[in-house]
Amino acid sequence: MSLLGIIASQNYPRITGSYESIATTTVGSGGTSTITFSSIPSGYEHLQLRILGRSTATGTDQISIRFNSDTGSNYSEHFLRGDGSSASAYGGANVSAVQTGVLPGTNQTASVFGGLIVDILDYKNTNKYKTVRMITAFDNNGSGSVGLYSAGWRNTNAITQIEAFVTGYNFVQYSSFALYGIKS
Description:
The chain is mainly beta.
């Protein structure tokens, strides 16, 4: 059986139901290093964050997220990433933020933006830690990056704030962020 077949046969939480827009933002001129969604309502089963972004970094840049302003070492993360010629994998525990993907930087083809989809499962359930899964990619005319990421936030608090950021650089103008609530 193929890897895709094995994954499809597992009993992973599937995100189905209706998607409702909670908030959107687009980066203006001058850029910004952080986008924050706060006062997230509790009327949904799951959340989905969609990002279309580019960084002011020279090469590529790592985008990360945090929940409820928690900067402690309460996150764990894993990823598989490839660029067409090589692959890498990583797992880390006790980190202070979750890596969600790679964004193209200024040495990439002009106007190339990276896409990320971040699923935050059971975000309001106060009886369990939170699980996050992400998919990310960008194409740079034959090169680029694709990645599968997963993470955990070891906290039972309901998520009421999400902060997406790049360290040392900015998201460029026209980078866009959209937060959706998913009803079952």
